[in-house]
Amino acid sequence: TIFRPAPFYYDEEAVREREACDYNVKISLNMARAGLAPRRVRVYADGIYDLFHQGHARQLMQAKNILPNVYLIVGVCSDALTHSKKGRTVMSEDERYEALRHCRYVDEVVPDAPWILDDAHLEKHKIDFVAHDDIPYTTGSYTDVYAHIKERGMFVTTERTEGISTSDVVSRIVKDYDLYVRRNLARGYSAKELNVSFLNEKKYRLQNTFDDLKKRGKEMIGEIEGKKSDLFSKWEEKSREFIDAFLMLFGREG
Prior knowledge:
Strand content: 5-15%
CATH superfamily of the largest domain: HUPs
Order of helices and strands: HHEHEHHEHEHEHHH
Domain Cytidyltransferase-like: 44-171
GO molecular function: choline-phosphate cytidylyltransferase activity; phosphatidylcholine binding
Number of helices: 10
InterPro entries: CCT, Cyt_trans-like, Pcy1-like, Rossmann-like_a/b/a_fold
Keywords: Lipid biosynthesis, Lipid metabolism, Nucleotidyltransferase, Phospholipid biosynthesis, Phospholipid metabolism, Transferase
Pathway: Phospholipid metabolism; phosphatidylcholine biosynthesis; phosphatidylcholine from phosphocholine: step 1/2; Lipid metabolism
Radius of gyration: 32 Å
CATH topology of the largest domain: Rossmann fold
């Protein structure tokens, strides 16, 4: 997948890989860690992956390398399911699927992934282990959605990346909202596309114009300062020439 997008689970390449896997041969965690698995170890990671960032990439890197010879399958929840469970996303489901397909650690993508992994889902995709951080995931309830995976000994732990999350990225955008709106207006986006009112649009455009004038003013002052410096430098050179010519004409003794 270094040279092409990772396939969806229903694409020919993924189907061929899945059919070649003898799921009757069960792989224990100890066996996998020791590198004694008789086939590729199918590890599954799932999530929303909105505004795909380095925290997501690092989690998938860990999942890919958590055991020897891993085939990494990534499940991505749909818009409808995510909005009902967690709230609105910034990126659409298709955009999120494509972001995962172009991550180099991912071998296969499962779109419209379930919120809770039941046995049927595990069997369908021939999943050996599920990778996620060890913090209980209880969105919408008090039950960890990975509890039964942990009970079956199929859970492997990845670590969160401190200082970065989708919520952090959204918070930064909200914090500097005015700056981003002004930037996009200057780049040609319409007020309708940015969901900005008529009055706010005029305010932002006026601020942009004022900033442009300030920038041009600074540039003009810089140019004037440069010309003044150049003028003084030339005057000094000429003054030396005048003095030398005067002394040559009348002599140093007067």
